[in-house]
Amino acid sequence: DRYLTVGGLREEYGQAACWELLLRSELAEDQVAHVSRVLSSVTDRAGQPGAGGVRAVQERLERLGWPAHAEADGDTVRVRWDLVEHPHVTVVIPTRHNRTMLSTNLPSLARTDYPSFDVMIVDNGGRNADNERWYAEHRHGLDLDVIWWDRDFNYSAVNNTGAAKARGDVLVFLNDDTEIGDPGWMTELVGWSTRDGVGVAGLQLVGPDDRLQHAGVVLGMGGFADHVFAGMWPGADSMLGSTRWYRDAMAVTGACLAVRRELFEAIGGFDERFVLCGSDVVLGLDSVLRGNRNVCSPYCRVRHLESATRGTSVPRGDFFASFWRYSTWLFGGDRYFSPNLSLSSREPVLRVPAEPSTAERIGVVLDHRFDAYRQTSDEVEARWLADVCRAASADTRAAVDLHARNAAPFDVRTVNWFIPGIDSPFYGGINTALRIADKLARDHGVRNRFVAFCAPNEMFIRSALAAAMPALADSEIAFYDLDDPASLDAVPPADVSVATLWTTAYSVSRFTHTKRKFYLVQDFEPGFYPAGTVYALAEETYRLGLYGLCNTDNLLRTYTGEYGGAGMSFTPAVDRQVFHARWRHHRTPDQPVTVFLYARPGHWRNCWEMAAPALEEVKRRLGDRVRIVAAGAWATGTGAEMDIKRLGLLPYEATGELYRHCDVGMALTVSRHPSYLPLELMACGVPVVAFDNPWGHWILRDGQNSLLAKRTVDGLVDCLERLCVDADLRARLSERALADIAAGHSDWDAALAGIYPYLCDPEGHRPGTGFAAGTSAVGPVAGTTGATGVAEVTER
After folding, report:
1. pLDDT at 613
2. What residues have CB less than 8 Å from 688, skipping those under 6 apart?
3. Burial 128-144 (b: 16+ CB within 10 A, else e)
4. Which of 208, 265, 683, 779 has its CB surrounded by the most CB atoms within 10 Å?
């Protein structure tokens, strides 16, 4: 349809006819998909673009209103910038007063023909009269200032300091070990970096041997990230095309890049958790997450003696920081690099079956096994869990006696958080535990310790904490082994100990170096397993005598009413920095309705087996009127037969933007906690289709802020089709959903406010005061709003 609408191929453009068609179609990102399989082949790649190619690009430039013209340049078309306005540029150069490098860099920089720029040098080589005199004598006519840096070197912090004092509307970051060879280099950078839709702009770099050193960053190459085409000659051809082409990239090197000050400040500058390497990549990724593309130009190349200033030693912590920021693309693939190409070679070659996986590459560097323990619910696992998850009646009595001895209120100063390691600190139950710990530290000065039953790797755990909650980065970390009871005795004492998963509840039950024991209950975990050994072990944790910190009133009622525990509840919220509808995308009537699904095929808790046939049926009924987008811990494979766009495991910051581009969301759970997904979708203005599960009625109300389906394929299809074809219904549900989130689920600080007082005095609160101790009615209570996080139950 699009082909016919725009008029099809035009013969007058010759070999550039297909190129011109794509430029003229002006397709939005969500209308484009990359098929990574070989569907056809040609005997010869098209040669020179000719007059047709130049004309096609020129017409595109005119439609965009860009101040540039197109001209032929060998086998490509060059964009020459005819800037009418020249925004002021500040060039930021970090150095350790390397006079040898600066004596090459500054004179070459002085030959720049851009009319409005200044230079800001950040020097941590030591301020003294001799060094100051050297700069006074070697300005080379430049508008130059020097900031003296007297702290430990941190590449990110040094550049951020220079940027904070810069005068330019465009910031150019340049290493001191570079040499400018083309006076027009700054015009090239400014031309690209100031275009709408472009984030960071960079240039190709060549090394001392004139071979390419940088032409854009590929995520996953060599393990974490590397430079495509490095080692090749400029102008060479490859399986990824000519090195002479402009290229979009996930990132460009910080040795030479340009970015608008406005975007740089919105991102927050370079991430200072990176000491030497990686923050330039993250700057590019953050630009992409804001809907931009990053451009690497093959023109005006810059010569670079890489790492001459600092050497080639990368701090080990930078690898860990890189993992948490890159992981989406490490495991899901770089959007600009074919999955058929090897990540072991900078020169594009076909991937071979024996190539190491991403997990194998980075696992060696991080000293972390990505195939570590995962629950499987098989006989071997059940036998092991039965052996290690032990509790006797005496253990429960000991917990009750402990709490009786420490019944008087006291200020909690230290907390041991028992965790099962960390896969991702951004999602699910672990993220809530970290939020609570962060609030305890910020508001009450609590010292948190994280006690993990996993292979000891302090840097991995610490980097995960820093990635999600920077204030927790300096927390103490301890490890223990479920198979070794003595290791539990070695864990340092704390005022309070908190279990965060059912398996850790047994450890907290046996831990003796604490005054109180709590259990962060975030779902009815026995329901994750078939009736049997593991179900029984998980259920028994509710009878271990631990105080409950229950995520929703429903789970408090379960914990107290069905198992006789004591506890309090809080009602979850959403992160309004990520999940909001302030710039929600609104579709035109001719655009397909987008249905979002979070799913992990093969993982029973998300009901994929029911979602898949329902989506197939909706697609059969509505055809091109509906578009299906899925995200989760899978990026390829299942779903191709349904025309599903699979996005893999997204960065946390990207999920809100994805939801704002969706019209209908599916959130399918049957447990007693509906997950945070419905709340996050609703906060982005997306009407939700969920199962009619009474345990979710505290937030989901059929026909008011969502549609609740029978737990069958037919039930899902009916609700999905109804929402897809009725725009007025979507708008009404969306409006109410936004109001409900704003009224009761928009502030995590408020939601968690009652936890610290309860830790300090769990026995001193009575019904109606915001906490609960005792028993309540069994089962869910339909219509409970949960807006205050207060559960009223009878006194024990």
Report:
1. 92
2. 664, 665, 666, 667, 678, 681, 682, 700, 705, 706, 707, 733, 737
3. eeebeeebeeeebebeb
4. 683
